[in-house]
Amino acid sequence: MQLIAFTLLVACATAVPLNYTDNQEDWQLVPDENGYMHLVDIRSNDNKEVTPSFVAIRDVVFRLFTRSNPTTPQFIQINNHEQLANSNFNVNHQTRFQIHGWNGGGHDGTGAAIRNAYINRGDFNVFTVDWGLGAGTPNYILARNRVNEVGHVLAQFCDFLNIYGLPFSRIGISGHSLGGQVAGAAGKRTTRGIVETIVGLDAAGPLFSLDDPANRLHHTDANYVETIITDAGRLGFQHPIGDANFYPNWGTSQPGCGIDLTGQCGHNLASTLMVESINPVHIFGAIRCRGLDDIRDRNCVISGPSRRLGGEPLQDGPGSVGSVFFLTTNAASPFAQGPR
């Protein structure tokens, strides 16, 4: 499989998605966590390992941040009760996990903004899930194929915290792009309870199928699953696969992104909106539409009560599965426009 890395400057000269079909090839631009675009043949079966081997149970890193250690992480290993007991982890506090996407990872690049938002909001245990050794490959297909393995390890970690005394009702997981799909994989694999909430932040679309819910984010992966869809049908998964599914600005062409040919700006905005929503000052009110066709037609006919995107805590009660919500945002911070 041939991979060509583009900077955004170069990629912006090319329309996306690029669906060049030549024999069995299907080339599309896919973003990594750092804003670089890669031209990937998503039909290729050539998954030859081009990076160091990755074993999730060994290589996924869990970093704990609390108000007592907001910037210096404490490393916690699965089933290490002594390590957890000697940390600032508190079973009485809400616990949040944040998962990065392709080519993300590391202390500074693993959800720092969301981590800080929670810590500023209150007493939270915030874990960043660093699978950088698995995601840090030029081979998108290889990274995608590691999603279930990483999700299994995260599920084991949630079970471990539950054994230690943390109720599943205090566990929330959010993930951006491939990280959103990892969150779903984790929710499917816990054995001691059901994760309370999952938020897919423009969960990755390439190589994930609506017809294969066992291998993508699904509304049954937690008691409440929310999706925030900002680059629908290109880099993000287009369909409403959660309990509540939010399409800011129709899910495409985000204000402030200009001519976002690659989709990277819009794709990243989902995380930005989630960060802002955690601050109670910012309310992202959204109206309920009849379904995805309303979003595609850009004609939302109100069909139920309004709801807010994101926030802390997330909206109480899942509502009806697959419900679709529309909202507009500002082009710069503050993005929220208040209740609807």
From TrEMBL:
One of its GO terms (cellular component) is extracellular space. Residues 1-15 form the signal peptide. GO terms for molecular function: lipase activity; serine hydrolase activity. Pfam families: Lipase. It comes from the Eukaryota. Residues 54-335 form the Lipase domain. It is found in: Secreted. CDD domains: Pancreat_lipase_like (cd00707). SUPFAM superfamilies: alpha/beta-Hydrolases (SSF53474). Keywords: Secreted, Signal. GO terms for biological process: lipid catabolic process. Belongs to the AB hydrolase superfamily. Lipase family. This is Lipase member H. It comes from Pseudolycoriella hygida.
